[in-house]
Amino acid sequence: MRLAELSERSGVSTATIKYYLREGLLTPGRQINATTAEYDEEHLRRLRLVRAMIQVGRVPVATVREVLRHVDDDSLGRTIRLGAALWALPQVPEPDEEDEHIRAAHREVDQLLETLGWSNARALVTISPAYRSLVVAIATFRRLGYDWDPELNLAYARLMHQAAVLDLDFVETHPSEAEKVETAVAGAIFVEPMLQALHRLAQEEESARRYGFE
Amino acid sequence: MRLAELSERSGVSTATIKYYLREGLLTPGRQINATTAEYDEEHLRRLRLVRAMIQVGRVPVATVREVLRHVDDDSLGRTIRLGAALWALPQVPEPDEEDEHIRAAHREVDQLLETLGWSNARALVTISPAYRSLVVAIATFRRLGYDWDPELNLAYARLMHQAAVLDLDFVETHPSEAEKVETAVAGAIFVEPMLQALHRLAQEEESARRYGFE
DNA sequence: ACCCTTGGGAAGTGCCACTATCCAAGCATC
DNA sequence: GATGCTTGGATAGTGGCACTTCCCAAGGGT
Predict the structure, then answer these.
(1) Which of A38, A43, A93, B136 has the fewest C-beta atoms lying within 10 Å of its C-beta?
(2) How many CB pairs under 8 A join A and B?
(3) Do A120 and B211 touch (CB under 8 A)?
(4) B32 in a domain, yes or no?
(5) CB of residue B115 closer than 7 A to nucleic acid strand D?
């Protein structure tokens, strides 16, 4: 198919597709002659993934490029590849390691991982952005003066571990290795907004149950 | 305290504070004379909340204003107030109701709420942005061709309901009514990045457990 | 009286995700 | 084979957002 058809079938304007091509989010089509290029179903699939990452996952364009680079990198093992792709995802600003709240949050998270027995995660601690995000989130909460029981973190962590098990079980059902990594990334990216939406819905539901609409 | 001190204690530049004042994210200080205004601890607390919403919660400035407007609106009941505040939070673009994937997702979510027995959430269906976000997330996943068992949604929803119960239990521990709403909002906003970070950490952990670092 | 500080407002900055315009090279039709 | 529409690639421009810089008049300390 040509650019115009790719645009039609994806619902993305040709101008935007050209932009994505320029930014390296899509591989160029097969050049037929100086003015025509041919795209296939794979391009369409990739384009939809990109669009979804940007619009639903709110992933910046530069980050999408990084994530895809890792997804397509056959030289990496699965965990590393998934990790690499996830690590490229949007991050909170670099925490100020001098800050007392940050240091306390570090200790708190380390303790949490210890209690959970997440030894693998602990091994990745120094480099995982997820770890950093968690530290920043906890430090922020503490800085605002909320007195948050570490038990609560533990409970949340156990819930999210259950979610992760569901995620990976789902990925297991997918046959090819390449597809597995893509599915894992898609899962990581799209399950998050879903969990968020479910979380808010559940809050509304539970709040209404407890307090009615008073 | 004066603007300079407010800036110092919050770590936010005076220029930015002035910007927030202009945007209505902070109430003006008590004017002492033409060149001096006095701010109090409440301003500091509010400023930290605003900063955290913007930096950690990635909430747009205009949205922060909306959320705070609801938090401060004493005329509303708690559920409505919390709901109103949460409804102002970042939303996915309006779904195209004509689209087949969207319509299917609607049916899927309705079925899900039915099965869960979330009758309150069902009552809010037509207006809740969380519901809309969920529909868009599911439709996107389906459009990408993932064959996702509705059972899985159910499992995720139950997990998030447990999280919501934890959230509200935590809110219960806070004394004043006004503080409860603020805590609920803070919880909704800050628990989300935390859950997200925990989710990614858990994925890394679980992936490493299953596949090692192959 | 002098000068530094203060708060307020207007205008500017940098980044980002597009989007509009231009252009030369096809292809289609007459 | 001339004409005119379409195509893909390149370049520059747009609009929104979160600040940030600049300027100013009015205080207040010494």
Answers:
(1) A93
(2) 284
(3) no
(4) yes
(5) no
